[in-house]
Amino acid sequence: SLHNYLNIAQQVALEKLAPTEINVDGLHFQLRYQSTGEPPILSIELRNAFGVLDTPRVNNGKTAVLMQLLSPDLTELHTTSDLRGFWTAVYPGLKQDLVRKYPALQWPNPVLASKD
């Protein structure tokens, strides 16, 4: 592991720039980093992202996380690095299918605050 080669200060700096987990609306999720240098992947059930309008970021806010949005049965619904765009352009059409497939669950419309 890379951590074996770093001193404590370097480990703390690395964790700040490239955290192994991320807080999304009060819940902690693991990030998967790719050896290709692409942005890290966050696999998250869509229902856990309802309170989140903007894509989480790492690398001091420079890198948007690639969000793999999952259905309640953990199949991939959509992957995006633009969560706000997903809520406005993709989710309205996807919601119809989700209501049909998972009628017992709530599928709210996100409240998109304007970006200041």
Strand order of the largest sheet: 3-6-7
Number of helices: 2
When the domains are counted, the total is: 1
pLDDT averaged over residues: 90
CA radius of gyration is: 16 Å
What is the helix/strand order?
Answer: HEEEEEEEH
Query: Which regions have little confidence, pLDDT < 50, spanning 5+ residues?
Result: none
Q: Characterize the largest beta sheet: strand count, sense, and whether it forms a barrel.
A: 3 strands, mixed
What is the 3D shape? Answer: elongated
Number of strands: 7
Helix content: 25-40%
Please specify the SSE layout and strand pairing.
Blueprint: H1 8-17, E1 21-24, E2 27-30, E3 41-45, E4 57-58, E5 63-64, E6 66-70, E7 76-80, H2 83-101
Describe this protein's structure.
This protein is an alpha+beta fold and 116 residues long. It has one domain (2-101). 25% of the residues lie in helices and 23% in strands. It contains two helices and seven strands, in the order H-E-E-E-E-E-E-E-H. It has helices at residues 8-17, 83-101; strands at residues 21-24, 27-30, 41-45, 57-58, 63-64, 66-70, 76-80. It has a three-stranded mixed beta sheet, covered by helices on one side. A two-stranded antiparallel sheet has the order 1-2. A two-stranded antiparallel ribbon has the order 4-5. Strand 4 and strand 5 (63-64) form a beta hairpin. The longest helix has 19 residues, at 83-101. It is elongated. The N and C termini lie far apart (41 Å).
